[in-house]
Design brief:
This protein is an alpha/beta fold and 247 residues long. The chain has a single domain, classed as P-loop containing nucleotide triphosphate hydrolases (Rossmann fold, 3-Layer(aba) Sandwich), CATH 3.40.50.300. 33% of the residues lie in helices and 24% in strands. It has a six-stranded mixed sheet with strand order 6-7-8-3-9-10, sandwiched between helices. The mean pLDDT is 92. Bound molecules: adenosine-5'-diphosphate and magnesium ion (MG). Adenosine-5'-diphosphate binds next to α1.
Length: 247
């Protein structure tokens, strides 16, 4: 099996501090993967590198069947290639309805800011309804997005990313600020999405990670400390020492 995404020996330093240190790992097609690790381990920086926001000083980032180098692409080309990223703070247009937000995302060419240049298309309504159903917002199509709960806004943003049909979705700390019920629905959603897309989730909430029920990568000081099932990595003495033991 060839990987969908492979990072190979990447390092990045900020003012001499190695935030990512010879990091290597792979994500498969339609794989669901959780990334955990202490604050400052490099989890967000890893996502910044994959999406082209931060350039590594060394190493390779390879994408898709042809192992294309993402390091030769800019942020919008990487988005075009099929990598979508969800930030922690939802960035939906609060004055627009759920349907309007999804319509804009659907009509826009892939890319971080291209959503602002949308042209409505005639047959988008059915796809908008489908996207809303996929993220559990079918009943809320005509509501102003600003009226949604925090969790619902996060799902709307995931729906907007799905409108671009990404092959890989990067999701940074989705559980933060969500109610328990919302967190449970989010794990169900992410598991379902991974049937058709690869999904990489950074998350601290261990109950959330357990419900994802997927392979876990533990980052520490910019490298992979352990990898495997949640039970496997949480039994690792080094993981307990650097992460779990801190309470
Ligand atoms: N743009 C930046 N400039 C300087 N230092 C940064 C920058 N981005 C991240 N860092 C540093 O790199 C380390 C890793 O950060 P980050 O990837 O955000 O960790 P995590 O998401 O695992 O908590 C931290 O020490 C952080 O302060
Ligand atoms: Mg982070």
């Amino acid at each position: 099996m060839t990987a969908l995404l492979e990072v190979r020996g990447i390092s990045v330093s900020f003012d001499g501090f190695r935030a990512i240190n010879n990091l290597s790992f792979e994500i498969g097609e339609c794989e669901l993967r959780a990334i955990i690790g202490p604050n400052g381990a490099g989890k967000t920086t890893f996502m910044d590198i994959v999406t082209g926001k931060t350039r590594p000083n060394e190493g390779q980032v390879l994408w898709g069947e042809g192992s294309k180098s993402l390091l030769r692409m800019n942020e919008s080309q990487i988005a075009q290639a099929g990598i979508g990223r969800k930030f922690q703070r939802p960035t939906v247009f609060e004055d627009q309805t759920v349907a309007e937000n999804l319509t804009m995302a659907l009509s826009a060419p892939r890319g971080p800011f291209s959503v602002l240049r949308w042209r409505p298309s005639a047959d988008s309504a059915a796809r908008v309804a489908e996207l809303a159903a996929e993220v559990g917002l079918a009943e809320h199509l005509s509501r102003k997005s600003g009226e949604l709960s925090h969790g619902q806004k996060q799902w709307l943003e995931i729906g907007m990313l799905l409108a671009q049909d990404p092959r890989l979705l990067l999701v940074d700390e989705p559980a933060a600020g969500m109610t328990l019920a919302e967190r449970e629905q989010t794990t169900t959603l992410l598991r379902r999405l991974s049937e058709k897309h690869a999904v990489v989730v950074v998350e601290h909430d261990m109950d959330f990670v357990r419900r994802l029920d997927c392979k876990v990568t533990v980052l520490h000081e910019g490298s992979v400390l352990a990898e495997g099932s949640l039970d496997h990595v949480t039994a690792n003495p080094e993981v307990i020492e650097v992460y779990l033991g801190r309470g």
